[in-house]
Each structure stands twice: as C-alpha cells, then as structure tokens.
Amino acid sequence: MNDEADHSLEDSDDAPGWDAIEAALAPIYGDREPMHYGTVLPMSLGGQDPLQGISAYKNLEPQPHYHFVTFGFSELYEKESDDPDVSGFGFELTFRLACGADAPEEPPHWPLNFLQNLGRYVFSTGNAFDERHHMTLNGPIALGEETDITAIMLMLDPQLQEIDTPNGKLKFLQIVGLCTDEHHLIEEGYFDAVALRVEKTAPLAITEIWRDSILKDPKTLDEITASEPSTNQSEVFGSIAQWEEADGKLLIQIGATVVRQLKGILKNVLSQGESGVVYGKGSGIVFQPGDGVEWEVDEGLLIVTLPPELAAALADSMQAERGVFSVPETDLVAIEVLPVDIKDADGNVIKTVG
C-alpha cells in the first residue's frame, strides 16, 4: 500500500461512495488530511489487497488514539450490486488504536495489514460482518507484541454510525479488541455483559492492546455468570465448511479453528430449538434441531437436521485436532476436523491449528 492524499479518481462524480465516506468523516476531522494508504493494485485488478485504501487520523479526543477507516467493502464508484438499498457488503470497518499524546501522526502499519486480512476473508468467502459479530484471531492481534488481545467484536462506530450513499446504505462497524478469556465468555452466551464492560475500558471503545482482561478481578466473572447466558453464538466464521456424501452417509468437514464454536452450537443452540451456521469460503453448513437425522443442499448451503441429544453427543466427541469424530448412536453423519494454517500479512505460515 502507498501513502496517498486522495483516491485515484479525482473527479468526485466518479467516486460517489468514496465521497460519502469522506463526508461522514468531515464533522469529526474537518478539512484535516489523513494519512491515507492506497492500494496500488487492488484485488479486483489482480492484486493481493481487497481494499482500495485505508485512512488513519490521529485523534487526541477524548483519549489519544489512531482512527482507521477502510474504503472498499462498500461500492466506492459506480453501482454494481443488484441490491439498490445496500452499498456493496453494506459496511466499512473502523478501528481505534490507543496511542500516546506525543505519538507521531503516522500510525503503526500492522493495523493496515490486519484490516486487509479481514478484507481477504470477506472477499474470499462472501461472508459479511455486522454488529455483534465476534471472532477469534487465532493469535495476537499484532504479531510480535506482548498482548492478550486475540479476538474481536464488532459494534457501530459511536461517531460514524450508519449513512446513506448514492449506492445504498452502509454501516461503519468498529473493531473492538477482546482478551482471550473475554471471548471465551462471549462464546458461552454472555455477549452483552462482556461487551458492556469492555466498551467501558476506554472512551469510544478504543482498543488498548496492552490492557488487562476485565476478568482479572474474579468478582467480575462472578457478576457476569450470576445470570443465565442471554445469547448463544449461532454464526461461526471460518475458512473450511464443506461436505462429502457417499453411500447414504454424510461427512462434514470443518477447520480446527472453529471447533470450540461449533461445539457451542451443537450443545447450546440446538437444545433451545434454534439453528446455527458455520460459514466457510463460499459455503455454509446450517445445523437445525429435529426428530431425526436428515440433510439437504439448498442454494449452496448444507442444511443438517439433528436431534438435540445426538448433536450434544457429537459435540462432546469433537476435539480441535485432525480426525474424524462420530457417535455410536448413528453412522449416518460424522464430522472431520481439518488443520488450518495461520498466515502472516506476507502469506507465510506462522502456525498450524489442528
């Protein structure tokens, strides 16, 4: 990515979506020029970076931080998608990273790679983000930093919210960093209680990558878990969600990085009469409760019906390691866990899960 002051199309009529984003930022930053990192060769033209650019503002209020804003999840130029009411994927991402008051105007570059990596996931899978989504990062948010921020959740950016553009609506979804144990608690159904406390660790839900977990004080954990879980995670985003059918039997294949979340769906979501889904690259697997074991493929989605007690037993059998997991109660369905390579911004494998 290169530093640029403006987008590549200087005529504002050529980039109405881009101009709408800049107009939304104007009440906050006025005519200040951000540090802008434009993509020389975007993915749409054969490059590796899906986003057209990322702007970063150093903001001293109400606490010093860098405010990153993406350009490219929405339709920046002419309207191309079929939905007239939504621009592209319907969102842009923002990220607020704490810094010192005397920090330079130029931000650290790891958030740029981080945001582009999220872009690669969205563009390669077609899975759009939304408010209240959360996901593990399978490692520290910033490689080489001493941090326990290993997951994220999404909320509306408190200053930008949602806007109308000539190409449709878009939300500004702010990334908020989560410590490992905070995300585990969210996966257990305590999203609202955890999110409320995390957002209060800094104004505007600024992410401080060196902060302690809100659960460092045992009393906080007791307060949160004193009530029943209010929400169970019903959507899981991974890289592998595929299946094979042979001789009237179904083999479901998922990546090792989503085993924990899938176990929660099978044990907690189906038992409440609800459905859950695991998304992969261009595919998805829906799990729903029912009286027997059935499955069908509908518009690219595999829909699997399982009795809740069978689903729970299947969950108990699964491990986050390579292997095929099944239960004695049925030979109709099994789950194969496949290893997943975690890569850095340059595509180098830094570890393998499973």
The shape is globular
Number of domains: 2
Unreliable spans are 4-12
Binned strand content: 25-35%
Can you put this structure into words, describing what you see?
- There is one protein chain.
- It is built from 7 helices and 20 strands.
- The protein has 354 residues and is an alpha+beta fold.
- It has 2 domains: 2-225, no CATH class; 235-342, Sufu, C-terminal domain (Gyrase A, domain 2).
- The strands form 4 sheets. Strands 1, 2, 3, 4, 5, 6, 7, 8 and 9 form a 9-stranded mixed beta sheet that branches.
- β3 (53-59) and β4 form a beta hairpin.
- The two termini are 33 Å apart.
- The relative contact order is 0.10.
Write the layout of secondary structure elements.
Blueprint: E1 2-3, H1 16-29, E2 35-38, E3 53-59, E4 65-71, E5 86-98, H2 110-125, E6 134-136, E7 149-156, E8 162-165, E9 168-179, H3 180-187, H4 191-199, H5 218-225, E10 235-237, E11 241-246, E12 249-255, H6 259-269, E13 276-279, E14 284-289, E15 294-298, E16 301-306, H7 308-317, E17 323-327, E18 330-338, E19 340-343, E20 349-353
Parallel strand pairs: 5-9, 10-13, 12-18, 14-16
Antiparallel strand pairs: 1-2, 2-3, 3-4, 4-5, 6-7, 7-9, 8-9, 11-12, 13-14, 15-16, 17-18, 19-20
Helix pairs in contact: 3-4, 6-7
GO cellular component, one term: cytoplasm
Protein name: Suppressor of fused protein (SUFU)
Domain Suppressor of fused-like: 47-211
Quick overview of this protein structure:
This protein has two domains: 2-225, no CATH class; 235-342, Gyrase A, domain 2 (2-Layer Sandwich), CATH 3.30.1360. Helices cover 21% and strands 34% of the residues. It has helices at 16-29, 110-125, 180-187, 191-199, 218-225, 259-269, 308-317, and strands at 2-3, 35-38, 53-59, 65-71, 86-98, 134-136, 149-156, 162-165, 168-179, 235-237, 241-246, 249-255, 276-279, 284-289, 294-298, 301-306, 323-327, 330-338, 340-343, 349-353.
